[in-house]
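User: Can you help me understand a structure? I only have the sequence.
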Amino acid sequence: MILRLAGRNLRRHFRRTLITLAAIALGTGLALFSIGLGDGGHFQMIENGVRIGQGHLTLQREGYLESPSTSSFIREPAPLLEILEASPNVRQIYPRVRGEGILATAAGAEGVQFQGIDPSLPEEAAIFRRSMSEGNFLASDSDSSVVLGAKLAERLKLKLGRKVVLTTQDSNGEIISTLFRVEGIFRTGSATIDGNICLVPLRALQKALTMGEGVTSIAIYLKNPFRQDQTFEALRSALPTGPAVLFRWQSLQPDLRDYVVIDDAFGYMIYAIILLIVAIGVLNTVLMSVMERRREIGILMALGMGSGPVMRLIITETVFITMSGIVLGLLLGLGVNWYFATYGLDLSAWSPEEWSLAGTVIDPVLRSHLRPVRAAGLCLAVFFLTVTMGIYPAWKAARTEPVEAMEKP
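Assistant: Let's start by predicting it. Here is the structure, written out as tokens:
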């Protein structure tokens, strides 16, 4: 009987019901779109950040983070690489040598951050590979070639084929100078990256720094970045206790971590405002419905319907409206997110000088990335908030005095 009465009441004021449904659907859809686009932007920033940086997880010698030096390196990485390769969630592993030095030419000298990489490994330095503006990327792991950023090349007046000298400290603390030839120039869009970083072959750098097979770090990229914590704990248990320590990317890139956290906090504030507006709209609609039907409710109570069934009737109406609105909003939100996940939101028309933030490169085409758990969480939040808003009108209806209510026309 309660279900029939609830359905009849909703149909009787069909236009008001449709307006409420539309409010819930639009609010839910807008929140889903905001979550998908925000998470997509964060996902792209983090993926680019870990590509430029040291991976989702990084293995490096204890103390290297506090005092980076080529003398603090992992001397025998081979056993560690075998353990990492056996992990089911590890996608790629890249041994690297990182350090700081001075890059000099006849035109001057600049402080740089150099990275020794193995160009034969698939997708190693993918951000730099796709950003090559002149020449070629590193082709061999042992030759004496270098690729560097466009702004750094401009300051040093470097062109393809020119020679440069990299001066730094080797693994024994001795000052060394090594000659390299410019193989290519990249332009990522970040002034910091393009003006400070150069890439050299791993083997050539290991030889110059007298490191043997040693590396300063091992970058670990995961198949599922959202399982980072579980993979971190599993690898930390599997790796031997020793000088090599495992880190999350959040520890190595605090600027990017803090930006994502702060941006998420602002995002949650916006979602809360949207949901609050929707909930107030539902409260207004249900309360108005109760006040208009006060005489009808009084008659039902005079015929024997108790306070409990009256409350259940109003709550049932609220649940009907809320569930229908959530379903429509979910369809709308998923459709919009699918479109922007497929085609993206192109921001390149703004044509900024650089696409960078918090130490990473930003893709000019922003793509939505809505995870099922996030969509389900939002739908549950909408449901509980709006249904909670229906409790007060239901309580007010249950307190109706039959005689007093029936006195009014």
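Now, to help you interpret it: The mean pLDDT is 86. The CA atoms of residues 53 and 253 lie 8 Å apart. Let me know which part you'd like to focus on.
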